[in-house]
Design brief:
This protein is α+β, with helices and mostly antiparallel strands. It contains 2 helices and 6 strands. Strands 2-1-6-5-4-3 form a 6-stranded mixed β-sheet.
Length: 86
Amino acid sequence: HDRAAFEALLAPDATMSDDGADRDLADWTDREIFSSRGHMEVDNESNGGRALIARYSNDTWGEMKTRWSFTVDDGGRIIRFETGQA
């Protein structure tokens, strides 16, 4: 996992939510992606890659079907993403 590359995609004030609840972005990404070896297999992509249905897995929760949506600023950086079970 390349944390630096992931963080470079995010706007400085990026936000996120998981299952409809806003979360602390740094804490959530550390816990759900980097510390637990998170991985996704995309099953469906729409809205120019800004909406995904994916099988997401990590060492904490195993595998689940998830939805992802991304809001991107004019510079191409993610300003918000929302995820949850699909």
